Amino acid sequence: MQSIQNCLLPEKALFIHEAPLKQTPPTIQSGSCAGVLPRESCHGDSARGLVAQGAILTSSRWLATLGMLALMAIAVSVICLHFGAQPIGYGEIVRVVLDAMSRKPVDSEVSTVTSTILLQVRLPRMLLGFFVGCSLAAVGVALQALLRNPLADPYVLGVSSGAALGAAVGVLLGVGTTVLAETALPACGFAGGLLALGIIYRMAANSGQLPIHSLLLTGVILNAIFSALIMFITSILEPNRSYGMMVWLMGTLTAPTYGGLAGLVVYLTIGLVLLFSYIRALNILALGEDTARTLGIDTERAKRSLFVLAALVTGAVVSVSGMIGFIGMVVPHAVRLLTGADHRLLLPASALAGGTFLMGADTIARTMISPAEIPVGIITALAGGPFFVYLLLWRKDRLA
User: Fold this and answer.
1) In whole angstroms, what is the distance from residue 319 CA to residue 164 CA?
2) CA-closest candidate to residue 299, choices 288, 311, 312
3) In whole angstroms, what is the distance from residue 209 CA to residue 268 CA?
4) pLDDT tens digits for 108-167?
5) CA distance 374 to 362
6) Which of the listed residues 45, 46, 137, 242 has the most CB atoms within 10 Å of its CB?
7) Predicted TM-score (pTM) of this structure
8) Are 118 and 98 a contacting pair, CB within 8 Å?
9) Structural domains in the chain?
């Protein structure tokens, strides 16, 4: 068990202090809390024996980081609205959006076409990409802290495949052709993702631990089994529905109706709000289950709740976007390098960065060979695959 003699953790969930950062001497051992001011959580860096950067999280640093990421997301969103088969000027974008908000009538035929492209195609698709990216990145952060595994990700562990199988079964049973499809398919995806997480936990757990090799092997096995079942379902569908299923499985964002987008947001809001309520537990669970129990955390209850929330969010996302991989692994790592491992900042920052990343990736996917489109899952895989190989081959010390 890691030493916690000098580490005092708060009883309340919110404990951000306005205090200057304290420089951590390079002699601090991994897992030690020496040198950290009271009422602050700390993590040991297993690779170099240093406490994670930003030992003290101040309110000014929290606001500055999230504010910068929010401004970046707004800037990227405007750029995404600009690019397409028919580029639209930035001034026109602002005018159309302001007119829509004030419900002013459109003056000319050209403005009508521009307004339709922006408000009915690009804007809902951009919002969908942002919410999907936010959700996948947040789930990735939670799974990495829960399993203490830098490779934990809904796609790698087979959770996305399970959610896709649930949604495919729903389509096979006719859910996709009913008026309840916009809310029923996320429920089917949630059931499939929960089933996958349950199987992963049962197969990989060994004396209460979840070794990395067992997790990866379980994820590979489940991906193979679920993919085979999905292909079977696809093969017995009608040709048109079968083609649509294949495109959807590669990860595709299509412009949703605002009603469908609202239904998805309800699912994701519930899941993410509950997930954010476990920020303090995630900070402590990252230190290890024994330490968490010593500090009064009901680890089994926390793990069950977080698994269910991960399945809820992943299922809702996969039901509308297909299997978009690697966002839950790449984005949290990149953000962690900049902000440190404190989940009070890491979780919301990763959510914003994940949404921004997927908006940009989707813009590349739909403009690279315009007017044709590339499934956005291909773009994220090309970005995340090399990073995955890098972690496995050159950062083995971080995966022990």
Assistant:
1) 7
2) 288
3) 29
4) 655 788 888 898 999 999 999 999 999 999 999 998 888 777 778 888 788 888 988 988
5) 9
6) 137
7) 0.78
8) no
9) 1-56 (no CATH), 62-398 (1.10.3470.10)
